[in-house]
Amino acid sequence: MCYYRNFRSHQFSLPYCMLQMAVRLRCRLSIVVWLCINRTMCTASNVCSWKYDSVYKEAILKNVSCTALSSIDKDMMSIVVKHTRVKAVNDYQFAGAPSLRNVYIYYNGISSIAATAFFGSCCIQNLWLNNNRIKYLPRGLFECQTNLGQLHLDFNNIKHIDGSMFRSLPLSTLWIDHNELNIIPRPEAFCALLRGLRIVRIFNDLSWETPHEVGQLGGNSLHLATE
User: What is the CA radius of gyration of the chain?
Assistant: First the structure.
């Protein structure tokens, strides 16, 4: 039941219970609005905003605290991701970019890359994924990369490499030093790749799955495993 209460400071009177309900409702609405705005801002701050160089057609992310990559314009020729908090390169992250030539995703904390990250972007020539925390390379990651000349995988946490992944790559430079590799399967495709390389850096405690051979790569003698 509502009672009227006169306020001397006003020239009118309202039901006191109605005024009290209106104040409470306004407070609740203010809290809800604040939470929605705050949540939107936090979510938005986690997604990286690219800086574009229209002259060189380059998408750049450097020295930012965001944790999630957004898609890039499809006409970009180069991307640079350096000193961010990004942890993963997700499915189709840079897919369908026919002009993409140079990918420099280094000095981050990235631990995983999806097999479809570069799906349909088949003109990449330089792929630098060094100085991250990548643990493995998913099969299919290099599919269609028939122009890839430089591949930098050094300073990661890679423990195993499937040699068949390199079957169609025309690499001239391969850096896989400072990982956790101790054995590499050695199909013929991988052998052919190694013979065609001009620059190789391995520097892991490596053994091969083919017996009685020794390879000289990057100044390291790699004794081949007998098992």
Answer: 28
Domain limits of the chain?
4-43, 48-227
Do residues 114 and 140 lie in contact, with contact meaning Cβ atoms separated by under 8 Å?
A: no
Tell me, what's the pLDDT at 190?
63
Residue 216 near residue 195, CB atoms below 8 Å = no
- CA 165 to chain CA centroid, nearest Å: 19
Q: What is the mean pLDDT of residues 209-224?
A: 40
Report how far residue 25's alpha carbon sits from residue 18's, in angstroms, rounded to the nearest whole number. Answer: 10
With residue 155 as reference, give the H or E element that holds it: none
CB 146 within 8 A of CB 122: yes
In degrees rounded to 5, what are phi and psi of residue 21?
-65, -40
Nearest to 124 by CA among 139, 140, 103, 108: 103
Three-class SS state of 194: helix
Q: What is the pLDDT of residue 17?
A: 57
Q: How many helices (H) and strands (E) does the chain have?
A: 2, 16
Burial of 18 (C-beta count, 10 Å sphere; 0-12/13-18/19+): exposed
What CATH homologous superfamily does 48-227 map to?
Ribonuclease Inhibitor (3.80.10.10)
Query: What rounded mean pLDDT belongs to the chain?
Result: 76
| Residue 66: both structure tokens together | 């965001």
Q: Exposed, middle or buried: residue 89 (CB in 10 Å: 0-12, 13-18, 19+)? A: buried
